[in-house]
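Sequence design from tokenized structure. All designs in this work follow the same two-part layout: the structure record, then the generated sequence. An example of the structure record is given first.
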């Protein structure tokens, strides 16, 4: 059991925020204080809560009721509030806020947004999460965002952090010379922000 706290000294990586939520629930607060590095792949939320809501079903008529007697029951939609897409994204952002608060000593955060930002609500949750990071972790040493540095024009609070690294990766294919072999290269544009100075670095990996 003494080795368990040592696991929290290693970089923590989660492929979705739901897995991060469950991991935090299973962890003790004193162990979470040892976490210094977090990598999180942000995913879209499940909107089936709305589709399967009982309030979307047609109301049923009460049985054996006197037609001259006024009903004291309200229609089902008045008993419960149907969750909206906005409220679900807002709730997810609240969970993300609580999760970051549960990791008070983070020094490095890597955030990977969803590949397809197919809705304004999803993008809004992602940008709001970015804005939360400088406020909840002002002493953060490094923030790595797998996105274009253009988000700085939207989330200006990121400029308050000492170092922000943007990685915008694009997959590409190149033909290799000799015997018809092909090499697949991935080009990444990296922009490092230190105060007002921006450095641009281009890397290429071949496999």
């Amino acid at each position: 059991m003494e080795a368990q706290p040592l696991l929290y000294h290693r970089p923590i990586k989660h492929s979705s925020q739901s897995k991060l939520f469950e991991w935090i629930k299973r962890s003790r607060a004193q162990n979470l204080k040892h976490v210094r590095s977090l990598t999180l792949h942000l995913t879209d939320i499940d909107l089936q809560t709305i589709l399967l809501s009982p309030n979307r079903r047609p109301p049923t008529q009460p049985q054996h009721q006197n037609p001259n007697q006024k009903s004291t029951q309200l229609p089902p939609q008045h008993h419960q509030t149907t969750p909206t897409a906005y409220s679900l994204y807002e709730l997810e952002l609240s969970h993300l806020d609580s999760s970051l608060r549960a990791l008070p000593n983070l020094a490095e955060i890597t955030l990977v947004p969803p590949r397809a930002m197919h809705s304004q609500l999803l993008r809004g949750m992602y940008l709001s999460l970015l804005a939360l990071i400088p406020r909840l972790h002002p002493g953060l040493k490094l923030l790595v965002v797998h996105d274009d540095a253009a988000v700085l024009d939207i989330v200006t609070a990121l400029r308050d952090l000492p170092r922000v690294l943007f990685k915008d990766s694009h997959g590409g294919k190149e033909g290799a010379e000799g015997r018809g072999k092909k090499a697949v290269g991935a080009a990444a544009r990296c922009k490092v922000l230190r105060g007002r100075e921006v450095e641009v670095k281009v890397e290429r990996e071949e496999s």
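Residues 55-64, 69-79, 170-207 have pLDDT under 50 and may be disordered. We note this feature because it recurs in several other targets discussed in the main text.
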